[in-house]
């Protein structure tokens, strides 16, 4: 088995059934390395995204989240190991913010 090209971890809340449906549709084309872990998991009113694989439909997922951003809190980190960068999409007070940083900068900042 090869190493994943993309890793994605995130959580958003409060998430209703329509957001969950939209995210499941957006994630339909994802290519995870394993089907052992669900891509989308509900815990109360929070949805967690967990992905490792070769293709993650980031634009589609962000579009689904943006449509519900008025009430969302949370974040989603997209780690592109091939491009060696981290994109953080954060949701706070009805606003979606996206920032990109080289992984070297992230590792330096975290003390690794």
Summarize the helices and strands and which ones pair or pack.
Layout: E1 6-13, H1 17-26, E2 31-32, E3 40-43, E4 46-55, H2 58-67, E5 73-80, E6 85-92, E7 95-102, H3 103-110
Antiparallel strand pairs: 1-4, 1-5, 2-4, 3-4, 5-6, 6-7
Helix pairs in contact: 1-2
Can you tell me about this structure?
This protein has 112 residues and is of the alpha+beta class. It has a single domain, classed as 2-Layer Sandwich (Alpha-Beta Plaits). It has helices spanning 17-26, 58-67, 103-110, and strands at 6-13, 31-32, 40-43, 46-55, 73-80, 85-92, 95-102. Strands 1, 2, 3, 4, 5, 6 and 7 form a 7-stranded antiparallel sheet that branches. A hairpin with a 2-residue loop joins β3 and β4. α1 packs antiparallel against α2 (58-67). The longest helix is centred in the N-terminal third of the chain and has 10 residues, at 17-26. It is globular. It starts with 5 loop residues before the first strand and ends with a helix.
């Amino acid at each position: 088995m090869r190493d994943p090209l993309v890793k994605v971890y995130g959580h958003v809340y409060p998430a209703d059934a329509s957001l969950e449906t939209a995210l499941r549709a957006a994630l339909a084309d994802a290519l995870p390395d394993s089907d052992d872990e669900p891509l989308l998991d509900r815990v109360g009113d929070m949805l967690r995204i967990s992905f490792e694989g070769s293709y993650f439909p980031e634009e589609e997922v962000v579009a689904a989240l943006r449509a519900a951003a008025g009430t969302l809190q949370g974040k989603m980190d997209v780690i592109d190991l091939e491009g060696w960068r981290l994109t953080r999409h954060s949701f706070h007070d009805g606003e979606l913010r996206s920032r990109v940083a080289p992984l070297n900068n992230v590792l330096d900042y975290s003390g690794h």
